[in-house]
Give the backbone structure.
Amino acid sequence: MRRLLVVNALIFAVLAAAAALAYYGYSATSEQTSHERERALMQDLAEEKVANLEYLIRAQDTELMKRIELDKLHDSAFIQQLRDTTGAAFSSIYVLDDKLELVPSANITTRRDEAEANAYRDWFVSHVLPQLALQQAKADERGHLYLNVEGRPYLFSYMKRKSDGRTFYVVIEDDMTHLTIQLFPQFFAVSDKRLYQVVDEHGVVRSGDPFSNLAEGPSVERKFVDSLDGWALRVVQKNLGDESALERKRLVNSLLIGGAVVVILGGLALLGFAIRRERRLNDLKSEFISNVSHELKTPLSIISMFGEMLALGRTKSPEQAHEYAEIIWRESVRLGRLIDNVLDFAKIERGMDVYEFEGEVDIIEIVGRSVELSQRRVAAAEMTVSVELPQEMPPVRLDANAFTLAVMNLIDNAVKYAADGKKIEVSLRQDADRVVLAVRDFGAGIDPDEQERIFERFYRAKSIRLKPIRGSGIGLSLVQHIARAHGGDVTVASAPNQGSTFSIWLPTSK
């Protein structure tokens, strides 16, 4: 009944875990679909914003370069008019002739320090000009060059112009400060739902705040292709909820998934173990029934045979009749002990309370009586038993009948499986707040791998199965149950060919 309840509980737990995973899978699928739609929307939005920004830069620079007049570049009012009408923001304007040489008095820079302006012009001629594909430029078509020099970004726009029969080239250094501080915030303003961030080719944030805990989910990215080569706009969904609530949700989801998986795997493993164990127990029970049947038949057959001989008067002398009666008594005791084992074990299996504890019992007397009751069994096996009992022992709270059965089972176990050792030693001693009963034999011993399993119900050691020794397989299991019911336990110390020592320890009453 208990095993059935455990199996039903495992099945229910596995079904509940599977239902939880199914619910989470459905929720995750719905959430994933929503995330995919949001991601596609953010991708379209990023492409649109980058395209609009680059269109503006391209249009302003193109308009500015088309309106350059060589004979008016020295006029500050004309330059201001270009700024106002085109909207272009520039740091420098350089004009080169058809031989790619700077045209004197046709160059403009916002750098007011003359030395700084001259140094920058020289740097432009030596480093920037060779990288501009001016000779391949087409008339009135804008080209661009992006450079990153020592961590500082530069954007140059250039155009080939023809005016009044002259060919010249205009190169504009775009104002990066205006671009990152004014244009970017206008185009990529934070909305109620999304965050924007512009990073350069090295991943350095040039505009916008780090996403950190403000973002939710992965970001989408759209690169600049017609201005700031390698730069990209990143868009991410804004975290609209409480971060602590989201963290709790993640934790709950993790616990839900992990717990469900553990329950399912553990349940399946336990079910598999239970099924295998039940199969093994069925096999052992079949063997148990066969062994018990044989164990019952043997003393019954002997009792029946000698009882019939006594009843028919087939005895030659009173001594022989006494011998037959003694055999019948011995086998009846053996039969009674076997029946008691089976009945007690059946009660234990059903979970019934089979013990009647008495306070402060003299354990020395109980052990002595148990050995005395086993003497005929030992003598019939042509073995000897020696007993070492102390004069005094502290009182122990126990069930006298149950403990007697445990001691007799240990002695009977030694008689069955260690008969070749010819002797058994029984000792009782005190160890701190415990009393320890030890039954030692000098037989073949027990393999170390099997020393834990011999206390399992119906289990019999492999070496015993190969010998014609009958047994129920419940004796040691019953001994263990009795010991643990008294608050103690039973242990075994054994080595191959060196005998075995079974020890029952019980707590004292003081």
